[in-house]
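Support reply, case 0932

Customer input (verbatim):
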Amino acid sequence: MALTNKMADASVEIVEGCRLPVLRRNQENEDEWPLAEILSVRDTLGRKLYYVHYVDFNKRLDEWVTPDRLDMKKLQFPKKEAKTPTKNGLPGSRPSSPDRDVRKSLDLNVQSASAPSRGKTLPTPKRKAESVSLASQVSAVTSVPSLPSSAEASQASVYPAVREAFSNKSREDEQLTSITTNGTTRRILPSQPGRKRKNCGTDEMIKVFQYNSPRNASGCLPPGEDSQDSSDGIPSAPRMTGSLVSDRSHDDIVTRMKNIDCIELGRHRLKPWYFSPYPQELTSLPILYLCEFCLKFLKSLKCLQRHLTKCNLRHPPGNEIYRKGTISFFEIDGRKNKTYSQNLCLLAKCFLDHKTLYYDTDPFLFYVMTEYDSKGFHIVGYFSKEKESTEDYNVACILTLPPYQRRGYGKLLIEFSYELSKVEGKTGTPEKPLSDLGLLSYRSYWSQTILEILMDLKSDNGERPQITINEISEITSVKKEDVISTLQYLNLINYYKGQYILTLSEDIVEGHERAMQKRHLRIDPKCLHFTPKDWSKRGKW
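Our regenerated output:
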């Protein structure tokens, strides 16, 4: 169909909230017409431009489009609301899109459904934190183990005794293997009908088989997500402290639109993916200039050049705690270096969706990874973590800047976070739910790390090598729930002749070896100079 046929009567006015197909190029450089929602309309030199969000696509693909890319014949107007429209009991100002209403109602259901299961309501924090990460997509089907409560975590030792156990629950039409955590039974593995299984705790030895698959073994179905969902298929409500909250009231029409066109950072020009709350007067500039060492934002190249004559920094402020080759890590205290930390959060928000940025960075440490050359230490990525985490979180937010993505730096950041946990003598986990790209990175890291452990096991007395979930967790500092979810995702857990086994097929082994050959960047623990601090003494903040 010709492009002119796609266009209809020009007298039809397109308003915010309308939906219609919009022409775009996909990854194969082919034309497609996905359904999109109009978020904003503006006039530029007498020509209308439309800011569109492609329905069921990530928000980083949102863009301004010209009228010739719109299929007006399939225009859908927003549904009219009642005279007194309400949202959460409050009057609304404009009709919202269906997916926003679904998300908000889901958040309300999550909070009301999860509060009784924890036995107490979550208090509203007195001090809001640096940033909030919410996954762009969360499966509502998979059931996975939950994390221990903060009270139990505080009473546990460095490597706490295992409370989880595989248990079976008989029904008329099916028999399930479950994981019981804190008194809550969560469905994990489908079992063979008519066969009873003994309880298998994470302290119990699991035999490892390589290169074969038992005929009568019942496989473990991989979950749709990692440890991100509750047992009843609804994402569990995040806590209201630290850097993760479930409040989506900030997701209004302003924050749904990118407000910065381009950022110049050192020798790179970056196209932001999402909204970031830079000052309003800077959002109309064609290019926003950042000092790559102190991350100060400036409105023109001349201002940047004048600033560089005064800026003495050639590396992030704080302590350099790791250096190998050209890669360095700097530890930055959010209280001592507040301006830098705030500027880092503003930059990170351009590439992290569903985050609420707060300017209280005091409770956080920032670990900035840099690459060194003759001009200085250039920022590659970073992760932040709470000084005190009651739920064993070792990462709050994590980001590799776009010019350095798909080069192994993301896994290096994750590996470094777990090396810090090893020095601290703890097991750690990232704040959940994870973003889409974060989930992929962590899932890949966990898989490679666990397979590396399993393939290095040596057999004793000619028998199959054995290992427990707890031992894997202690070796890697990966939390037990993440170990279990990874084994499920890889479909390694099987039940054979009355016991649980891990079956490593040839495909799994060959795929792992190929992946490890490509992974050239690794953390060397000998190059890490890090001494953990006791942040429970508030005077050290």
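We compared this against your earlier run and they match. Two observations from our side: The longest strand covers residues 376-386. Residues 1-9, 91-200, 211-250 have pLDDT under 50 and may be disordered. Please reopen the case if you see a mismatch on your end.
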